[in-house]
């Protein structure tokens, strides 16, 4: 039984188990699944000159012809050595094909199966986790540590260093998909080629998502009582294709986070101390604004704000025609109330 924990996947990829000849790589991070499948196949074919050493099979085709996988896996390489077979799971089950592979003689090939997010009781996952001849490797969206390792890998390969502030902004700007994130970091390294160091301006110019930054501006302005800035940010976002309903969703998440952190303030800690302990939750450029909001809004009032924003989000989903107006009005109401409290 080889069910690899997420923390042990890199170690397995560096040194696959000798008695394993089928590896299921699965999870919601499709980019990470593909990257790890590529890495494993490349390791198998390392040093091989066989142009037919890598075979790609479609999962839906295997579902119609289950015996083909075992046949391919046991085909002897033209020039000797090991072959790699990559199977992309589609909408149809391939458990029968994998059972035929695992139940027969040991092949000369390593089969790498790429799948999406599989539940714990999914037949394909259960089969590979329980078989001594197979391994199951989970791939979940990158955590901060994994993003930092990715940044380190690409900057080192490019002969570049990166300032702490630039690293923080870059890490916060990268999405959860590993392949997409790596592509963004490679693009940044190419942009900074020859300079020796990546700074905040480089990241802002190449990576930072203007829509996300704009939403932060609108949300922070609303909670700070700056109705004019909030309205201006909303107009800018609307012109770039980001509706107010999306911004109010971001405001709801922000209000929920503030409410949770406000509980620490109410228990006797200062807003500064709470922010220092939880600063990783926010983009570093937002920390001062968030700290001020944390000190200005009480727990009970934040509870009411969460309820009103949730209602605005629900209204937008039920009635798209009025959802935009409701969302914009909800954000501006927060700004007006914050300005009134500040007087």
Automatic annotation (TrEMBL):
Gene3D superfamilies membership: 1.10.8.60, 1.20.272.10, P-loop containing nucleotide triphosphate hydrolases
Record's keyword terms, sorted: DNA replication, DNA-directed DNA polymerase, Nucleotidyltransferase, Transferase
Gene Ontology annotations for the cellular component aspect, listed alphabetically: DNA polymerase III complex
EC top class named in words: transferase
Transmembrane among keywords: no
Source taxon at top rank: Bacteria
Gene Ontology process terms (BP): DNA-templated DNA replication
Catalyzed reactions per annotation: DNA(n) + a 2'-deoxyribonucleoside 5'-triphosphate = DNA(n+1) + diphosphate
EC code: 2.7.7.7
Keyword Protein transport: no
InterPro entries with a match to the protein in the record: DNA_pol3_clamp-load_cplx_C, DNA_polIII_delta, P-loop_NTPase
GO molecular function list: DNA binding; DNA-directed DNA polymerase activity
Family of the protein in this entry: Belongs to the DNA polymerase HolA subunit family.
The protein, known as: DNA-directed DNA polymerase
Organism: Methylopila capsulata
Species classification: Bacteria, Pseudomonadati, Pseudomonadota, Alphaproteobacteria, Hyphomicrobiales
